[in-house]
Amino acid sequence: MSRITRVGVMTTSAVAALALAACSSSGGKQTDSGGDSAGGKADTPEMTVALVTHAAPGDTFWDQVRAGAEDAAKKDNIKLEYTADPDGARQATLVQQAVDKKVDGIAVTLAKPEAMKGNVENAVGADIPVVALNAGMEDWKDMGVLSFFGQDDELAGEAAGERLTEEKAGKTLCVIQEQGHVGLEARCKGVASKFDKSEKIYVKGTDTADVQSTITAKLQDDTAITHVLTLGAPFALIAQKSVGEAGSKAKVATFDLNDEALQQIKDGKIEWAVDQQPYVQGYMAVDALWLRANKGASVGGGQPTFTGPAFVDDKNVDLLLKK
């Protein structure tokens, strides 16, 4: 079975699991969210887990990761401390702060592995169990991390590239919202390996006006563009505005989902999404740390635990909207 064929095999189960997700309304750059130990079903002693991500303020993708982590924390009698910063050096500092607090476990994203490596290794050296999620699939083992929960971003990009080829798409923009993010680069690389009419552009994801103006200018400059492929749901919504502003007929597709993007797929305004199930990533990362502490168990057998990719389009979006 080929790598891309496996994407199709995973789709049904992946979409079914995603239907469990419930987006949290909470957000913010650095926030502590204590797990409600009184509501935890586990009768094991309370433990403290730090979840440290590279989330940018306002990116609703991370609400889903956090919601999954919080649900696992409640079930497992865990106090969850959530912090985030998109800057690699500052995110690494958050990891070190968790080490200094002597937490019982750390779940961390590794979008900027070079910046993160030293402090993640400090955590491992302090005998604090560490698992990775979402980003850093090529680097987690080298840091002594126990498990990884996410998707192969290059494989996901290849799947998107094959779909663009099947749909006979023309020139396609692959929009990267954060320079230096290894996972986003891998997605566009995967697209280009299977679809030879893609072009990368960079936008400043934390600046909505910059995202819209950059995409608009590109669409105005190159009328041959038929598709805009964004790497996050909020950017797909911005790209729609750019298409209208530029008077373009380009179609919009995306990686990742939020509630609004699901409705946009239903309404035919977004063609499809490649989903990695962020809720599942957050849930499994926290639950794996509980299993390690209380059962001596490990998850993944030294290999990544994949939560995607899976396509969501007009054929299966109703299942998710019902949930």
Automatic annotation (TrEMBL):
Keywords: Signal. InterPro entries: Bact_Solute-Bind_Prot2, Peripla_BP_I, SBP_2_dom. Residues 50-293 form the Periplasmic binding protein domain. It is found in: Cell envelope. It comes from the Bacteria. Its main location: other. Belongs to the bacterial solute-binding protein 2 family. This is Substrate-binding domain-containing protein. It comes from Janibacter terrae.
